[in-house]
Amino acid sequence: MITRPIRETSPAAATRIRIGTLPHPGRARLHPAHAALTEAEDTWLAHAVPFTGGPRRETFLARRIPRWVCWCYPTARPTALTSISRLYTLLSAFADPAAQEWEAHDDLLRMLDGTGDDTSPYATAYKDARAELTGAMTAGLRRRHARAHRRWAEALVMESSLRAGGHTVHPDVCFPLRRLCTGGETVLLPLEHGLGIDLTELMERDADLAGLWRVAGTHMVLVDDLFGLRGELRTGDGLNLLLSLMRHQGLTVQAAVDVLLRRVADADDEYTRACRTLRARYRHHGLGGDLDRYLEAVGHLIAGNLAWHYESRHHHGPGHTWDGRPPVELVLHPDRTEFVYGAGREE
After folding, report:
1. How many Å is the Cα radius of gyration of the chain?
2. pLDDT score recorded for residue 137
3. What is the pTM of this model?
4. What is the DSSP annotation of 158-196?
5. What is the per-residue pLDDT across 234-244, written as a single tens digit (0 to 9) for each?
6. Is residue 15 pLDDT above 60, yes or no?
7. Least confident window among 84-93, 291-300, 315-324
8. Helix segments in 96-138, DSSP class H
9. Cβ atoms 334, 10 nearer than 8 A
10. Is 21 left (phi over 0), alpha (psi -120 to 50) or beta?
């Protein structure tokens, strides 16, 4: 079966899962301008999107998407970082299942599938943010971003339809759809813009390089599904790979996590192999230096996404803090996540 009815499976008082030390390429680092950017973007969002009521605005801002941008694009030029942050603040928040409680979500979907008014305040904010980012891109990057954006929009509309149907989607459908909906291809394109380079010439003739977004997107969506598990066990969300494995293959929570962890390790290995191959292939090419910077930035992106998930209060509860060490176990409570470290110390 492609889908099964969603069943709520709220976590027990203390559901403990072993995750080990998650492998990731590159080194996580925050953009030097992270504090100023976060403050400026919170102000911009409050004015650009007219939330109806303080709680919704505070819930939206608490997701701290500009900080995710600073973790994922630490080497971006400051002039490019603001436009990247504005678009992906809206993209990431609207793509999250929790966003369906906001009036913005339906407006955005209607704009994407062409059935609604694209002059609403929410649609306008999204269009303006996208135009600001793509307007500063080279022609090649702008063309590729448009293609990727169409695929992302189609996937987001499909995901919303499946979620509204109240079914848990089969893993073979759930995973590739989730990889597109969490940004995948569209998340990697701003790396080039942020670095001030354009690899379109190579991307359009080298399938290995063009397909690197799938490798990075695989690692990123698996991390998102892992750390989103606590909330989605409570809601029974049918578009989380772990819940899909549990429902369709009859796995326990830990067994499903073990499957996910093997995929994370495979993605990490595949990234390493791809970088080795591509660097050797273009060692003497005129764009070899730009390619090397791009591959390094992809590693920062993957590592930064993981760091943001470690510190995310959206996933782990409003009182959560992270001291910078990777946990080896997670203890899932209905209202929070506890981190267990290698020496046994809990957060």
Report:
1. 20
2. 97
3. 0.90
4. HHHHHHHTTEEEPHHHHHHHHHHHT-HHHHHHHHHHHHT
5. 776 668 999 99
6. yes
7. 84-93
8. 103-113, 121-135
9. yes
10. beta
